[in-house]
Amino acid sequence: MTSFNKKIAIRWADLDPNFHVRHSVYYDFGAQQRVEILTELGLTLDVMQTNNFGPILFREECVFRKEIRIGQDISIEAKMAKLNADASRWTIRHLFLNTENKVCATLTLDGTWLDTSTRKLLNPIPDIIQQVMRSFPKTEDFVMT
């Protein structure tokens, strides 16, 4: 697999007063896609809850390039841009693409894993996390740190 792609439908509630997608919706679409990707790779919400861990974000940034309006066909492509050797830190990049495959926005986030019982960073990183994060499709400029 080279990337995770998801078609999205723009809803009336996603629009701002200028009739294009409001900024926070990009973050919501990215979060939903990440949960779906982790689930598809076997790292379900049940697995996380049972094992007392979950992803947390240090940084999330969206760069807007082109307006997205209601009625447009848009897809989101997600790839791993950076990953630590033990999968403890990672960067995921989402591209919001129109039907001409032009980038409308780029959502980039840096994250890690939280032990939900101690509320501290997870250490060591369980094998299932390492396997899932390593199987993520990579960007062309992917860096293993």
TrEMBL record:
<keyword id="KW-0378">Hydrolase</keyword>
<protein>
    <submittedName>
        <fullName>Acyl-CoA thioesterase</fullName>
        <ecNumber>3.1.2.-</ecNumber>
    </submittedName>
</protein>
<dbReference type="Pfam" id="PF13279">
    <property type="entry name" value="4HBT_2"/>
</dbReference>
<dbReference type="GO" id="GO:0016787">
    <property type="term" value="F:hydrolase activity"/>
</dbReference>
<dbReference type="InterPro" id="IPR050563">
    <property type="entry name" value="4-hydroxybenzoyl-CoA_TE"/>
</dbReference>
<dbReference type="InterPro" id="IPR029069">
    <property type="entry name" value="HotDog_dom_sf"/>
</dbReference>
